[in-house]
Amino acid sequence: MDEKPDKKPHVSIHYCTRCNWLLRAAWMAQELLATFGEELGAVTLVPGSGGRFEIHVGPHLIWERKRDGGFPGPKELKQKVRDVIAPERDMGHIDR
């Protein structure tokens, strides 16, 4: 039986509209959905301002642009999401 969507983890990507980071946020959302489509309940883009670029998995802040020194690459992002939602999952070539 499939797990209900509301029980699956939700990812939120907070991005600065003034910095024109919508395309970056959308691309990261696409990468996550392509990799974790069955394991995620939702990926939400949250517009904001002030140079904010943060990625949350549920209550966990896994990336903050200012704290972490820029933006994550797709490999790093997927590993960080995996570490929260399915730490036992082997990501194949991404983990090598």
TrEMBL record:
It comes from the Bacteria. InterPro entries: Selenoprotein_Rdx-typ, Thioredoxin-like_sf. Keywords: Redox-active center. Pfam families: Rdx (PF10262). SUPFAM superfamilies: Thioredoxin-like. Transmembrane segments: none annotated. The keyword Cell inner membrane does not apply. PANTHER family: SELENOPROTEIN DOMAIN PROTEIN (AFU_ORTHOLOGUE AFUA_1G05220). This is SelT/selW/selH selenoprotein. It comes from Novacetimonas cocois.
